[in-house]
């Protein structure tokens, strides 16, 4: 056999062996991928089963805990309802005792900001309190007699949600060249209106700068701001820092009251055309403060509207914001 034929057969054999090796490697990778997929599926099934067992255990634990609390309770039913009236927090407490002797009476006790309020339940097993707004309430019911008393303390109640209002912002028609004017409406929450238009003694708005914006195409020499200014940082913490609105390094805006709507508390119009016309690449934000007759103030927890304008374009954003009470006024 010639040397060329030997060399050709050897090359063919090497190619065949290489092809077999590549095929075996491909099959091993496929099998490995299939194993990984099966393991992932098994892990997902096992995770779902574990979550199902955990959720079922949590439900059973909650059910047992609730039944134990009901069995240990002095009352067959208790409830607390919150509302707002004339700038005051209205708390209605109700309790139905399981058993009550002739010489026993039931008193509702409510602690708010360190002050304790007490009132005997009426014929409908209710007591109602009207107090200054507070963040947390600590309710309890007391069964009293000549020989002593039994007290049942309920879970603390977070009252701020009942006091929240909502501000909804609407822009004017952009095509009508009214991009610098917008109006907003104040509404209540699921529990009702925390205040009415007649309760308001003052409505204020302030505009503050918060960094720079980048001009499209790089014109105007603008740059992207790095983080929030000190004023805006304080404004975002209005719910915990009452003086934040006063500390905003901005300018006051003029508010124009709008004609009322049946499902709204009150509406206002604000004109920021002068700021948009500056085309100064500054990002502006508008904040709102409402003061009631009893001195309670409400402040937006974030910017009601923000906008910026450059030589080439303008942008604005807004929607709705919580109007939160400043409780340590």
What does it look like?
- Keywords: Membrane, Transmembrane, Transmembrane helix.
- It is a single chain.
- The chain has 329 residues and is an alpha+beta fold.
- The chain has three domains: 72 residues; 85 residues, Immunoglobulins (Immunoglobulin-like), CATH 2.60.40; 163 residues, no CATH class.
- Helices cover 27% and strands 40% of the residues.
- It is built from five helices and 19 strands.
- Strands 9, 10, 11, 12, 13, 14, 15, 16, 17, 18 and 19 form an eleven-stranded antiparallel β-sheet that branches. Strands 3, 4, 6, 7 and 8 form a five-stranded antiparallel β-sheet that branches.
- Strand 17 and strand 18 form a beta hairpin.
- The longest helix has 70 residues.
- The chain is flat, with a radius of gyration of 34 Å.
- The chain starts with a helix and ends with a strand.
- About 10% of the residues have low confidence.
């Amino acid at each position: 056999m010639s040397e060329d034929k030997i060399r050709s057969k050897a090359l063919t054999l090497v190619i065949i062996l290489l092809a077999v090796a590549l095929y075996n490697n491909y099959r091993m990778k496929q099998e490995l991928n299939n194993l990984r997929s099966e393991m992932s599926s098994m892990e997902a099934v096992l995770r779902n089963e574990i979550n199902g067992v955990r959720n079922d255990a949590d439900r059973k634990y909650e059910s047992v805990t609730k039944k134990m609390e009901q069995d240990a309770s002095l009352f067959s039913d208790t409830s607390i309802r919150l509302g707002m009236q004339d700038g005051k927090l209205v708390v209605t407490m109700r309790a139905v005792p399981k058993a009550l002797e002739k010489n026993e009476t039931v008193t509702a006790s409510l602690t708010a900001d360190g002050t304790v309020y007490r009132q005997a339940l009426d014929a409908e097993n209710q007591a109602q309190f009207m107090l200054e707004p507070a963040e947390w309430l600590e309710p309890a019911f007391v069964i009293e007699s000549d020989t002593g008393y039994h007290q049942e303390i309920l879970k603390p109640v977070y009252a701020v949600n009942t006091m929240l209002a909502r501000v909804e912002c609407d822009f004017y028609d952009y095509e009508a060249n009214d991009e610098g004017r917008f109006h907003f409406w104040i509404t209540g929450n699921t529990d009702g209106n925390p205040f009415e238009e007649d309760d308001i003694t003052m409505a204020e708005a302030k505009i503050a700068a918060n960094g720079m914006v980048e001009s499209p195409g790089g014109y105007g020499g603008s740059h992207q701001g790095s983080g929030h200014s000190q004023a805006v940082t304080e404004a975002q913490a209005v719910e915990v820092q009452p003086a934040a609105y006063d500390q905003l390094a901005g300018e006051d805006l003029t508010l124009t009251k709008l004609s009322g709507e049946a499902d709204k508390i009150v509406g206002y119009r604000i004109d920021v055309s002068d700021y948009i016309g500056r085309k100064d690449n500054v990002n502006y934000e508008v904040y709102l403060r409402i003061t009631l007759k009893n001195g309670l103030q409400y402040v937006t927890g974030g910017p009601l509207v923000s906008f910026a304008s450059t030589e080439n374009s303008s942008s604005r954003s807004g929607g709705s914001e919580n109007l939160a009470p400043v409780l340590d006024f």
